[in-house]
Write a structure and sequence with these properties.
The protein is α+β, with helices and mostly antiparallel strands. The protein folds into 2 domains: 18-77, no CATH class; 79-288, Glutaredoxin, CATH 3.40.30.10. It has 5 helices and 13 strands. The radius of gyration is 25 Å and the shape is globular. The model is unreliable at 6-79 (pLDDT under 50).
Length: 289
């Protein structure tokens, strides 16, 4: 059931033991699987009487750490989150199952789930406390970009390109899997915050032929609402990742690396989306932690 309305990379290196870094090594077996040059010697570790070359160990450990870091960076890029936008309304009787499903999706590290509450159902008895004409306009923009004449709730849009009814859980999951399988690491994104200042850096390899819109999205992680009137009268519904603000920060040509600084206020979580203009595909997304 759905209702139609007409009209650069963060990473963490886990704790590592020496054995993890250099493989299993014992006196008499100086073959190191991680490091490809140099050798380890042993002193007072049995009867071999060999001495430890600490400078060589340090060089090898540094080389191994660099290899691990590169691997973690590449893995992080491959795990770039898929953006799922849910267009929903407190006044839509078909929406609560999709709202609950978005809550499940929001718990995944590989999904960036956002709830955009529209306002075009407010007239039927309950004014959505999160609804905004801006989010209705965003949904209509997606519809127009895909030659569609109607908008509806609940609708999910995956990475700005695939449109699906928000209660079709299997279809949504399959589309997320499809985008995860496609995700590459051709746009490296790094974001960091110091007080009220945020620095965003991005680099596209290869360079993009079209510009990308850099958009900041703020959201409330969770809010429970007791609905008194309308189609969901008497229901108490918990909503997740409710978008409260979406602003355009810049237009990036996708050729030269992006280095952007901007101010941010408040404690609400934030994400940045890199999206082609006119409601095109979302090419990259990053959370501000």
């Amino acid at each position: 059931m759905y209702t139609i309305a007409h009209n650069w990379v963060h990473f963490k290196i886990p704790p590592l033991s020496l054995e993890t870094l250099i493989g299993y090594i014992e006196p008499g077996n100086l073959d190191c699987r991680v490091f490809q040059h140099g050798k380890l010697c042993w002193d007072d570790m049995g009867t071999n009487g060999m001495k430890i070359d600490m400078r060589q160990i340090a060089a090898n450990v540094c080389a191994g750490l660099m290899a691990l870091m590169i691997g973690v960076i590449q893995a992080g890029a491959r795990e770039r989150p898929v953006v799922v936008e849910l267009f929903t309304s407190q006044g839509c009787a078909s929406c609560p199952p999709a709202d609950a499903f978005l809550t499940q999706l929001a718990s995944r590290d590989d999904v960036l789930a956002l709830a955009f509450h529209v306002d075009y159902w407010d007239y039927i008895g309950w004014e959505d406390s999160f609804g905004s004409p801006d989010y209705s306009a965003r949904q209509r923009g997606y519809a127009a970009a895909n030659d569609r004449k109607m908008v509806y709730t609940p609708q999910m849009i995956i990475n700005g390109s695939d449109h699906v009814v928000g209660t079709r859980l299997r279809d949504v999951t399959d589309l997320i899997d499809k985008h995860l399988a496609r995700s590459g690491h051709d746009i490296a994104v790094h974001i960091g915050r110091e007080g009220g200042r945020v620095r965003l850096r991005a680099d596209a390899q290869p360079a993009r032929e079209m510009p990308l819109m850099v958009q900041l999205v703020r959201y409330m992680p969770e809010e429970t609402v007791a609905i008194e009137r309308g189609e969901n009268a008497g229901e108490t519904i918990t909503y997740t990742n409710i978008v409260t603000e979406m602003v355009r920060l810049a237009r990036w040509d996708g050729e030269a690396p992006l280095d952007l600084e901007f101010e941010i206020r408040g404690d609400e979580p934030a994400v940045v989306l890199l999206q082609y203009p006119d409601f095109g595909t979302i090419e990259a997304a990053v959370r501000l932690r």
